[in-house]
Specification:
32% strand, alpha+beta, 252 residues, five-stranded antiparallel β-sheet
Length: 252
């Protein structure tokens, strides 16, 4: 188990949606980032078609992690699934995937099942047309960003099957803990099926929810610390015109 939910951590998580270093687990080479380590701000950047990732996203004197987010359409360079861009309904139509990632203007991140998005006292089923329309109106008012993907773990339970002959790739998974913290798992040089990756995340970190990030030929990852940028994905910045969106995490 990852941590004990002491009172101070619970209060902190309720206030900011992030855990703090007092309850951090031992360092793990399987994580690109854990919000437990320091105050962490998330952001979604929807890229213009044929535009490479900007070079000025890293914040001086902070750690910046940038990774590919939602899947990109094979027909044109745009994110697939339900997408809100800082309150703008970029593509407010839902795909069959169960996962929804929400980011507030202040950088708080949360993961949800699309059929039961519980946010600030309201519960929405985005598969219901009327409820989805109402949610979009509220998301516009609150300036929310959102993307959609496969959920691999739901309410602490694996939600992906072990399929014979499933493809193996490097995997990257964003997952959240029940206390409001979150982290990014990266399989590194190991090629894994989705089931294997989800199973490892479940066993090692006991998350509440786990959200698949786009990989394969769309694998972009960079970590900037102390002014030094290290590429941790397949693509370098010059080859990112095919990407439609990225997630940017800034950590004190």
């Amino acid at each position: 188990m990852r941590r004990l939910n002491c009172l101070s951590l619970a209060v902190s998580a309720l206030l900011s949606g992030q855990a703090h270093a007092v309850a951090c687990p031992p360092a793990s080479d399987g994580l690109l980032l854990d919000s437990c380590e320091a105050s962490t701000r998330a952001d979604l950047v929807v890229l213009e078609p044929n535009a490479v990732i900007p070079a000025d996203l890293a914040v001086p004197e902070k750690t910046t992690v940038i990774v590919t987010g939602a899947y990109t359409s094979g027909e044109k360079v745009e994110p697939e699934g339900f997408v809100m861009d800082h309150g703008r309904p970029y593509d407010p139509y839902i795909q069959g995937w169960d996962g929804l990632l929400l980011i507030t203007p202040s950088g708080e991140l949360s993961l949800h099942h699309v059929a039961r998005v519980r946010f600030r006292g309201a519960l929405s089923n985005l598969r219901d047309k009327a409820q989805r329309k109402a949610f979009v109106v509220r998301a516009k008012q609150l300036g929310l960003s959102a993307i959609q993907s496969h959920l691999l773990i739901v309410d602490g339970a694996l939600d992906v099957r072990d399929v014979a002959g499933a493809p193996r790739f490097r995997r990257r998974i964003l997952f959240s803990y029940s206390d409001g913290g979150y982290a990014i798992f990266d399989s590194g040089t190991r090629a894994m099926t989705l089931f294997e990756a989800a199973q490892e995340v479940a066993a090692r970190y006991s998350p509440d929810m786990a959200f698949n990030l786009d990989m394969g030929s769309y694998d972009y990852c960079s970590v900037t610390r102390n002014g030094r940028e290290d590429v941790c994905g397949t693509l370098d910045r010059s080859r990112t015109a095919k990407l439609s969106n990225i997630l940017v995490f800034t950590q004190d």
